[in-house]
Design brief:
The complex is a heterodimer of chains A (438) and B (618).
Chain A (H helix, E strand, L loop, with lengths): L4 H14 L1 H17 L4 E4 L8 H13 L4 E5 L5 E5 L2 H10 L4 E3 L1 H12 L6 E5 L5 E4 L10 H9 L4 E3 L1 H5 L8 E4 L12 H4 L3 H16 L5 H17 L3 E5 L1 H11 L8 H4 L7 H4 L29 H4 L6 E4 L8 H6 L6 E3 L8 E2 L8 E5 L5 E9 L2 E6 L25 H11 L11
Parallel strand pairs in A: 6-7, 6-8, 8-9, 9-15
Antiparallel strand pairs in A: 1-3, 1-4, 2-3, 2-5, 10-11, 10-13, 12-14, 13-14, 14-15
Chain B lengths: L1 H35 L3 H14 L4 H13 L3 H14 L4 H14 L2 H14 L4 H13 L3 H14 L3 H14 L3 H14 L4 H11 L5 H13 L4 H13 L3 H15 L4 H12 L3 H14 L6 H20 L18 H16 L4 H16 L4 H14 L6 H14 L3 H12 L6 H18 L2 H12 L7 H13 L4 H15 L3 H12 L5 H17 L3 H13 L7 H15 L3 H14 L6 H12 L8
Helix pairs in contact in B: 1-2, 2-3, 3-4, 4-5, 5-6, 5-7, 7-8, 8-9, 9-10, 10-11, 10-12, 12-13, 13-14, 14-15, 15-16, 15-17, 16-17, 17-18, 18-19, 19-20, 19-21, 20-21, 21-22, 22-23, 23-24, 24-25, 26-27, 27-28, 28-29, 29-30, 30-31, 31-32
The chains are: A alpha+beta (438), B mainly alpha (618).
């Protein structure tokens, strides 16, 4: 990605030495629009003064979609966006309630200078292309909501819903960014058996999975889910961006680790689990977690010890997680993913709430954690040519989103810092791709 | 001596035997504990030992087989079951278990072969089919289970027993047509099962494609004499929102059952709840006409009148004037309105001196006042409630309507008296009393009693949760910004009274005079806005637009500039049907007044005008 400001400076210095006239020409070209257009740029500031942080991402996304360029000013006023001034974009901001400043080219140049200044932990990332987004959503009814589809809908960012059929036939290559949420890749239907095995939605859900498996040539749902997880991993390896939340995070890695064993009890896949499943886990196959212990009891609503249990979190009032500071100029990727207007955020639970630090692989970057604990909320890593980001919890604005709870109305949470982290991930693939060295 | 030896021997052997049983029992409990803790490896030697000691013990056999399958040692399980088959080869459960183990082993063909052969070789019994079907269901091979249940049903003396299971399996496997066939089959044998059958069908009928394939099945059965199919069909038509078809079926049921319209009444009430007013009115009318002696006719009459009024309300909601701040009511003496009144009058005659009659009087009065403009007649109905039933729950509403009627006629004394009656009566609901207090403040304002008005508004504003607090705040603000200008304030108040009386032309002239005094900015600004609103009420769209444009152009100098711009947008949108100009005007409002109270409204109108949110790129 072209997010290394150092590259620009080296190139510029090189040109300065080799062609002294070029500097003057460039300077003249830079000044031309300052005088030509009084309102040259739109600054969508993302600090506490922003009226709707979430829709700001939608505005930027749609500007990119129209072929306009946008700059993401990392750490400048909460991670602001600088767009070319057009009446369309300005109108969109007003209609969507997104606060912005229409600024002159001179003012914009001042801002760029501030951001590029070596003394400031800030940087500019050029956003070039609106990423194509796929969300992994089952076609059947689910009695819970998906924070990502909620926020994409609210921000009016388009996405395509895909499911196992599409993944197994190789459709993932059509998308830049894939989101997983509450789905269970282990084939244990979310381990809801003890509480909901008689609920109609659970029965329908199981039948739907079984039909899918049969249709795709798998005898067992767990086998199909392993194949789906492997396809997703391959997609990341080929350069895809994966973002997962809640139970999709740990179950994805568990499914990958369990490639050569059967971890599902008979109520899930018809036959008993392998008694030696724990010993047969292959941690080298996972993306983020290692050395975890499976929860093999089918009546316990937990998959493994990766997840931080509610009892470990303590009181809701004290549940906050802290975003790490990264160098905007030298560590732009984690910096992009942690852009926010606050750096301490109220926690929220999910089937998978957070991850135990000792079970996270060493090559994975921790983006946010509960300070003073071993509880990690938000992680990021690379695999092959792609990246993955895992975010614990179900809904950043519903502390304990229970099965059957109504969806969160994001119009009431326009400035949600927890939801912003999701949208950082959406725009992250829009950053300019760095040319591969040959 | 021999006796003694024998006795001791007997005692010793009994104790030893009891000890052995006790030990086995403990061993078995230990094995069970291991099984429950999923430690099958530890349970295995214990269960093997126990089974070896008592091969005839079915409990041990079953537990050992379970341990084998949990450990995925399917060959051991097969050997164990086959070994036991040598002892009891007529036990259908053993065949079920054997097939199940083959299935777990991945040998589906052998599993089905075991099950099929068992059913062929063992004596024909419906129980056998059910047992094997249950093993197939346990392995979630639903198609095979359906096959066995179908065969079992064919030889069964109680086919209903199988039909419920078949219906359930068909619906699980999305074979909705077959599921409905099974449930209809149940009704053909036992009509008393209607509610159960209906409940089962309703669990899947809203799934994609289910209704479309189920309706023809029930229609086919409806040709029979069995009335229950008609009930079922009518219910499915309702699910399909084919209300006219459902109505036809209910009429057919009525023709047969002759229960004086009971089913039709239920149907009409359901339709009313679903806001299907036209069909609901037809059904009510049908009951009233065809069953005049029915005990349900009173309910039908009340329902009929309410439905007719709901139809009128629905039509009024399309009234093209309601977007305006002020507008003249479109009075209507059409037969439809008179039909509603007649329906209510009939109720008052049928149930005199009742709360139903009081509600009917209130409804008639409101229709007379708001739809026909017949104030005198309306008042007589409101007065009737107050005079005949002063304790009625509708009395406060009657006083309120009388107060509004008096205001409409400019009779401030009467209006004051009526609203006072509500405000001072502690029995009346708090929201009614609060509203009455606000109206009393307004009447004092119209009279020019500004100090009294302020005192009354203060009381209202002490409770900001009161629904009238916002209106009270606006009036209070107006008075506080013009404390020493009673003449202009009086002129404005009299204009407000004229607007209340819907004398928009006269009101506009008075507002214009107040608006011409630039010194009193708040009063002048509001009077100018009102002048535009009056022009709009008089359908003088061009004049109204000119006034609003002028106000909007004053920008921050006029505190109503944003509202004027919003109203301009409304005129383009609703009055002139010019969507482009409307959007442009609303967007102008967003750009010029980023802190306006009308921002959210303007945004939602833009979104509405540009199409659905999901279809509309930013």
């Amino acid at each position: 990605m072209d997010i290394n400001a150092g590259d620009h400076r080296i190139a510029f210095n090189f040109m300065k030495k080799t062609c002294p006239m070029l500097e003057k020409i460039l300077f003249a070209l830079l000044l031309f629009p300052i005088f030509a257009f009084p309102q040259s740029k739109i600054l969508i500031y993302m600090d506490l003064k922003q009226t709707d942080h979430l829709r700001a991402y939608g505005i930027t996304y749609h500007a990119l979609e129209r072929g306009e360029k946008a700059d993401w000013l990392l750490n400048y006023r909460g991670g602001s966006f600088m767009l070319d001034y057009t009446n369309r974009t300005a109108n969109d901001c007003r209609v969507e309630g997104v606060a912005f400043d229409a600024i002159s080219a001179a003012q914009a140049a001042d801002i760029y200078a501030t951001v590029q200044n070596e003394d400031n932990n800030m940087s500019v990332v050029r956003l070039e292309k609106a990423p194509k987004i796929a969300v992994y959503v089952p076609p059947s009814f689910q009695p819970w909501d998906d924070a990502v589809t909620l926020v994409l809908d609210y921000a009016k960012i388009p996405y395509t819903k895909i499911w196992n059929d599409e993944i197994l036939r190789g459709d993932l290559s059509k998308y830049d960014w894939l989101h997983l949420h509450h789905e269970d890749f282990t084939g244990q239907y979310g381990k809801f058996y003890a509480s909901f095995s008689n609920a109609q939605w659970y029965i329908d859900n199981q039948l739907q999975y079984e039909r899918d498996a049969k249709k795709n040539g798998f005898k067992k749902v767990s086998d199909m889910m392993k194949a789906v997880a492997q396809d997703i991993k391959d997609y990341v390896g080929r350069g895809g961006f994966l973002f997962a939340m809640c139970s999709a995070t740990d179950t994805f890695d568990i499914a990958l680790a369990a490639e050569h064993t059967d971890i599902c009890a008979s109520m899930f896949d018809g036959d008993p689990a392998d008694p030696d499943a724990q010993q047969k886990l292959d941690y080298s196959n996972t993306l983020a977690f290692t050395n975890f212990k499976l929860e093999m009891n089918p009546y316990v609503y937990s998959f493994s010890n990766i997840n931080v249990q509610p009892g470990e979190i303590g009181s809701r009032e004290n549940d906050y997680f802290t975003l790490f500071d990264f160098s905007a100029k030298y560590d732009p990727v984690p910096c992009m993913l942690t852009q926010d207007h606050v750096n301490v955020i109220h926690g929220f639970m999910g089937q998978t709430t957070a991850f135990h630090k000792e079970l996270i692989k060493k090559n994975v970057t921790i983006l946010a954690e509960r300070q003073g604990t071993d509880q990690v909320k938000y992680i990021h890593g690379n695999y092959g040519r792609g990246t993955f980001t895992f975010y614990g919890g179900h809904d950043p604005e519903a502390y304990q989103h229970l099965v059957g709870d109504p969806p969160t109305d994001l119009a009431l949470h326009k400035n949600s810092p927890g939801y912003r982290l999701i949208l950082n991930n959406v725009l992250f693939p829009a950053a300019k791709q760095k040319k591969q060295k040959t | 001596m021999i006796k003694k030896i024998l006795f001791i021997g007997f005692i010793v052997s009994t104790v030893l035997s009891a000890q052995q049983i006790y030990d086995e029992s403990n061993q078995y409990l230990l094995a069970q504990s291991y099984i429950q803790a999923a430690q099958y490896q530890k349970a295995l030697p214990i269960m093997e030992s126990l089974y070896k000691s008592q091969p005839s013990n079915y409990e041990y056999f079953n537990a050992l087989n379970n341990v084998y399958t949990q450990l995925k040692d399917y060959d051991a399980s097969i050997a164990l079951i086959e070994d036991r088959m040598k002892i009891s080869n007529a036990d259908i459960n053993l065949y079920g278990m054997l097939g199940s183990t083959y299935y777990l082993k991945g040998n589906d063909k052998k599993a089905f072969e075991v099950w099929d052969n068992a059913l062929k070789t063992l004596p024909q019994s419906e129980v056998n089919y059910r047992v094997i079907a249950n093993y197939a269901i346990e392995r979630r091979t639903f198609d095979k289970a359906i096959e066995y249940l179908k065969k079992g049903q064919n030889i069964s003396s109680n086919p209903i027993y199988f039909a419920y299971d078949l219906g359930n399996l068909y619906s699980l496997t999305m074979q909705y047509k077959d599921a409905t066939e099974e449930y209809c089959f149940i009704l053909s044998i036992n009509p008393t099962q209607l509610s159960t059958v209906e409940g089962r069908i309703l669990t899947y009928i809203n799934k994609p494609g289910a209704l479309a394939v189920s309706l023809p099945v029930v229609e086919k059965y409806t040709n029979s004499e069995n009335l229950n199919y008609k009930f079922l069909l009518a219910r499915l038509y309702i699910e399909d929102k084919s209300y006219d078809k459902a109505y036809k079926i209910y009429k057919e049921i009525e023709d047969v059952q002759k229960d004086q319209g009971a089913q039709l009444l239920n149907f009409a009430q359901f339709l009313y709840g679903e806001k299907v007013y036209q069909t609901s009115a037809s059904v009510y009318s049908d009951i009233i006409k065809n069953f005049p002696e029915s005990p349900f006719v009173s309910n039908a009459k009340l329902g009929y009148a309410k439905t007719l009024e709901a139809v009128l309300d629905a039509e009024t909601s399309d009234n093209k004037q309601t977007w305006k701040p002020y507008y003249n009511l479109a009075y209507n003496n059409s037969p439809e309105v008179n039909k509603v009144i007649a329906a209510y009058v009939e109720i008052t005659k049928l149930y005199p001196h009742s709360e139903v009659a009081n509600e009917a009087y209130l409804r008639i009065g409101e229709i007379k006042m708001n739809r026909q403009g017949n104030i005198k007649d309306a008042e007589s109905y409101f007065n009737r409630i107050i005079e005949d039933s002063p304790m009625s729950q509708y009395a406060s509403a009657a006083y309120e309507d009388l107060g509004k009627s008096a205001l409409l006629q400019g009779d401030l004394n009467s209006a004051f008296s009526y609203f006072s009656k509500i405000a001072l009566n502690g029995r009346y609901p708090a929201d009614k009393r609060n509203y009455a207090n606000y109206q009393l403040a307004r009447i004092n304002f119209f009279r020019g009693n500004f100090q009294q008005t302020k005192d009354e508004l203060k009381n209202i504003l002490s409770n900001l949760s009161d629904n009238n607090a916002n209106d009270a705040l606006e009036l209070s603000l107006l008075m506080n910004t013009s404390p020493d200008d009673s003449s202009n304030l009086s002129a404005f108040a009299s204009a407000e009274l004229l607007a209340e009386q819907k004398k928009f032309g006269e009101a506009a002239s008075k507002y214009k005079i107040v608006a011409s005094d630039p010194k009193k900015f708040m009063l002048q600004n509001l009077a100018a806005l009102r002048e535009g609103e009056m022009e709009l009420a008089l359908n003088a769209t061009d004049s109204a637009m000119a006034v609003f444009q002028k106000i909007a152009d004053e920008n921050e100098k006029n505190i109503y500039a944003d509202k004027a711009l919003y109203l301009l947008g409304n005129i383009y949108q609703f009055g002139l049907n010019n969507k482009t100009k409307a959007v442009e005007t609303y967007e102008n409002l967003l750009a010029k007044f980023p802190n306006s109270l009308y921002l959210d409204d303007a945004r939602s109108q833009i979104v509405k005008l540009k199409g659905n949110v999901s279809d509309r790129p930013m």
